[in-house]
Write a structure and sequence with these properties.
Elements lengths: L11 E9 L2 E9 L10 E9 L2 E12 L3 E6 L5 E4 L4 E4 L3
Antiparallel strand pairs: 1-2, 2-3, 3-4, 4-5, 5-6, 6-7
C-alpha cells in the first residue's frame, strides 16, 4: 500500500487552555474557508468558550483581574471584556 506525501491532519480540538472560572481557549483544526487561497486545506483557529458555549473567534485573549477576560474577536477586530455574568465591548472615545 503506497501513501501519498501528504498526511491527513485530524480535525477537532488540538489544544485547550483553561483560563479559569469556566472559560477556556481552544485551538481547533477545521477545514480552511473556501476561496482563501491557502496552502493547507486545514486551518488552526482560536476560539473562546465559556463551558461548552462558544463565545467568539479570537484574534487575541488575555486573562485580567481575578474573574474577567479581555479578548479581541477575530472577524471584526472588536475588543470585549467578559466575566461569567456579563460582556462589555471596549471602545475608544
Amino acid at each position: 500500500m503506497a501513501l501519498s506525501g501528504a498526511q491527513r491532519i485530524p480535525l477537532g480540538v488540538e489544544r485547550s487552555i483553561n483560563l479559569g472560572y469556566g472559560f477556556h481557549r481552544d485551538i481547533i483544526a477545521e477545514p480552511a474557508p473556501p476561496n482563501t487561497h491557502v496552502f493547507e486545506s486545514v486551518g488552526h483557529f482560536d476560539y473562546l468558550f465559556y463551558g461548552k458555549q462558544k463565545l467568539a473567534a479570537l484574534n487575541g485573549c488575555e486573562c485580567l483581574l481575578a474573574h474577567a477576560i479581555v479578548y479581541q474577536e477575530g472577524p471584526t477586530g472588536n475588543t470585549f471584556l467578559t466575566s461569567r455574568c456579563w460582556v462589555a465591548e471596549l471602545v475608544s472615545r
